[in-house]
Prior knowledge:
Radius of gyration: 13 Å
Number of strands: 11
Largest sheet: 7 strands, mixed
Helix content: under 10%
Shape: globular
Amino acid sequence: QVQLVESGGGLVQAGGSLRLSCAASGRTFSDYAMGWFRQAPGKEREFVAVISSSGSNLYYANYAGSVKGRFTISRDNAENTVSLQMNSLKPEDAAVYYCAATPFGIAAMKPSDFRAWGQGTQVTVSS
Length: 127
């Protein structure tokens, strides 16, 4: 099993950028595809992005339509980290962001597909 801890959340003005990081512990990090979800108050947890496990040095990613072109997911298997670079932030991007691990590859986009979760980090976007 892998344990996950997010960091990097905070307050940013609309149009600004933030970079979230997720540190993983456990020897099997590279075996998992890694994803980011978000949850705003009163709303369901929403898929943001997922990146493939390290089959080779070529990674694949999927993004929610609402963040495509603005957010970039990346991973560093040597450091056991996955990151989410968020640019051109909008007030509707405000949420608690969660890092998660899945054995099902980049087709996994439902929370039930993911087996391990971090505690979340708050992102607030002021208009």
